[in-house]
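look at this stuff:

>
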Amino acid sequence: MTGAGAEVQWRMQTNATITFGENNKVANLELGGQKLAARILSPDSATFAEADPVKLPGDPASPPEASYEGKTYDGNPPHNNTRVLTITMPSGTDFSLQVLFNPEYSGDASLITPSTVPVTDWSRTSHNN
């Protein structure tokens, strides 16, 4: 992204438990005994944070018929056990946000970080190491 005119926030909702490592460059998610590590590859200034699952100011309103568990809600329905993993970048920042998701498998699994390739250069083989 080049010269964002406002703060930019990447958000991902999850029911997993979130813990952070490596100065908030890694978010460890765990749900039902399954684990996944999300790692920020770039930019260096980016860090993860955790937020409540609520609409942000300026988000579009929910449709009047919005419902959750058989009840109609105006605004934010309850999101039991849901958290939001975020990365916030300040306005005016030039950056390429890259987040790598690595599931953790039992046994000996070697994880490979794919090559960084600009979107304009993507192909079926562009990320081969």
About this structure: The first strand starts at residue 8 and ends at 14. Residues 12 and 24 are 15 Å apart (CA to CA). The chain has a mean pLDDT of 85. Residues 8-52+83-121 form one domain.
